[in-house]
Automatic annotation (TrEMBL):
InterPro entries, A to Z: 6-hairpin_glycosidase_sf (IPR008928), 6hp_glycosidase-like_sf (IPR012341), MGH1-like_GH (IPR054491)
The organism of origin for this protein: Nesterenkonia sandarakina
Residues of the Mannosylglycerate hydrolase MGH1-like glycoside hydrolase domain: 93-403
Biological process according to GO: carbohydrate metabolic process
Name the UniProt record assigns to this protein: Mannosylglycerate hydrolase MGH1-like glycoside hydrolase domain-containing protein
Length: 550
């Protein structure tokens, strides 16, 4: 038998993933219903994947009188809106939709009477001392709704609950966080963006005055900032509120108008055309010229077109003189003299943070740049496969694990990355993604000889087995597709191929076999081939940007 055959046998004969991971709580049943499983021949990744599930379950527990919800994990007791309640739960939605639904709703149910959504909820209740928003909540809510549309995990009643809460919050931000009348959203303190220890906020208070997010300390010389990441968050939030409004029969056009106004303010106030990036503007009217991951946060909020994103990739994101370390994206430009890569503490002054890594895929996928994402992900996947814990921070130079343990963004990043690399990913648009980048080329002993992944979708059980050369996809234990390493095949909900995407740094050639037909293709990096009845109907590509040094 081949390595692919052996991996498939290992997957099929192993105990179900919930049992193998020792799950006993609410995650077990939801994961079992998803049919998700993973096996690897050689290397540590199979054990680390199951350990991720074990530790993920430890992060799912009630807060006060709530249903079981996702907690941030590590030293963070509770759920934070910047992470747990948005991007973490957006990823969790593919594994545990009921828990995701409850986690989103937690923040709506604890909304303050004046419209402020808590920045965190713990067993002691909600916190309101800062806003701490990063990933747009409306985007995460909408993607969950689309992914589970028509099920009890995404009903109209829940969507309306979330919509009404976000409408009130938008009004609160407009009233309380535009004191300078620019149309931007203002940061009053360091924790408004969760940038602990970042030189971005030197001489700013950590929290808002008297622990109230509506108050800015008048004795703080430089705040309020016009904050590009907060403004971009609201711009994106409003675009997705338009989608939700349309779904609920509400006025969508006004949200689109408000979104355009936010984008206009963002570029007029915070964009530096010469530097090609965004800066805060302090209360004295000066730009805070710290080149930080603010740019990545803005891009993940779907700001800018394909050309804008391509320039940002070349100049900053994939530049090893700025944000691209060998083990992930740094939190401050490596070239900034204030960069501090100390990964042993909760710091946004330089080290790689797993929150940045789990947020990053959205921007890349939004612009069709999957090949670049795959390129820069591989070393970090190898490092986390070999790590002794799931940390918040990683050393950009060595990949060694740093601050805290059992941290849900790191746990979910590994689960997400395995699925994006060599698994089966259900997507909010109703399609399925099958990717052939088996982790056979990881360094330092982390590589596997072959892997196999499973998932049940719409009553059909799919399995994807891959080695260093080929991929086999089975549907209900029967061969369904074959294609070479370096491709991603997109299918409709019934498993019919509709697109093929190039995922490697050079042309990937081979044959797609499906439904008794074959198709020979050569795909450049990021090239997307549209299929109709397994025949090419269109081809297009955004190009490819390799990493660069300076």
């Amino acid at each position: 038998m081949t390595a692919i055959d052996d991996a498939l046998v290992r997957l099929r004969t192993a105990a179900p993933a919930p049992m193998k991971a020792g799950l006993t709580g609410v995650l077990a049943g939801q994961l079992g219903s998803s049919g998700v499983g993973f096996a690897a021949l050689g290397g540590p990744l199979e054990d680390r994947w199951h350990q991720a599930l074990t530790e993920l379950e430890q992060c799912i527990r009630p807060l006060g009188d709530s249903m079981p919800v996702l907690n941030e994990g590590g030293v963070y007791a509770g759920s934070w809106i910047e992470s747990t309640g948005t991007i973490n739960t957006e990823v969790l939605s593919r594994l545990a939709p009921r828990t995701a639904k409850e986690t989103f709703a937690l923040f709506a149910r604890h909304q303050r009477g004046d419209g402020l959504i808590p920045y965190k909820v713990t067993a002691d209740g909600p916190g309101f001392s800062q806003i701490q928003i990063v990933t747009p909540l409306a985007r995460s809510v909408w993607n969950h709704y689309e992914l589970h549309r028509g099920t009890e995990d995404a009903d109209h009643g829940w969507l309306r609950l979330m919509y009404q809460a976000m409408v009130r919050y938008d009004a609160w931000l407009a009233t309380n966080r535009d004191t300078r009348g620019t149309g931007c959203v203002e940061a009053f303190c360091t924790f408004d963006t969760g940038h602990d220890l970042s030189p971005r906020f030197w001489f700013a208070p950590e929290r808002c005055l008297h622990g109230d997010a509506a108050q800015c300390d008048p004795e703080a010389a430089l705040v309020p900032y016009l904050a590009p990441d907060l403004t971009a968050n609201v711009a994106c939030q409003r675009r997705y509120l338009a989608k939700i409004a349309g779904e609920l029969g509400e006025d969508a056009d006004s949200w689109e108008d408000k979104a355009r106004a936010s984008v206009k303010a963002l570029f007029e106030q915070c964009y530096d055309e010469q530097d090609g990036t965004f800066y805060d503007v302090d209360s004295q009217g000066n730009r805070v010229r710290v080149v930080s991951d603010v740019l990545m946060r803005v891009l993940a909020s779907e700001i800018g077109d394909a050309e804008f994103f391509a320039v940002a990739l070349q100049r900053y994101i994939l530049n090893t003189a700025h944000f691209l370390s060998h083990y992930g994206f740094t939190s401050v430009s490596i070239s900034d003299p204030r960069f501090d890569g100390d990964h042993t503490r909760n710091s946004w002054a330089g080290p790689v943070n797993f929150l940045t890594q789990i947020r990053a895929p959205h921007a890349f996928e939004h612009h069709g740049r999957s090949a670049e994402l795959a390129t820069v992900t591989r070393p970090l996947l190898g490092a986390l496969a070999l790590a002794d814990r799931f940390p918040q921070c990683i050393d950009p130079w060595s990949g060694s694990a740093g601050f805290t343990t059992a941290y849900s963004p790191a746990i979910l990043w590994l689960l997400d990355t395995v699925e994006r690399s060599c698994g089966i990913e259900p997507r909010p648009d109703g399609t399925l993604s099958f990717t052939s980048l088996a982790p056979t080329r990881l360094d330092h002993g982390a590589a596997a000889d072959a892997t196999a992944y499973s998932r049940t979708v719409a009553g059909a059980h799919y399995e994807l087995a891959a080695d260093d050369h080929q991929t086999l996809v089975c549907r209900d234990a029967q061969e369904h597709m074959r294609f070479p390493r370096g491709w991603r095949v997109i299918t409709d909900r019934g498993g019919l191929p509709t697109q093929v995407i190039g995922m490697t740094t050079s042309a990937a050639r081979g044959t797609l076999s499906a439904g008794g037909k074959t198709l020979e293709l050569s795909l450049d990096p990021n090239e997307r081939v549209e299929l109709v009845d397994l025949e090419v109907s269109a081809r297009h590509t955004p190009g490819y940007t390799p990493p660069r040094a300076g």
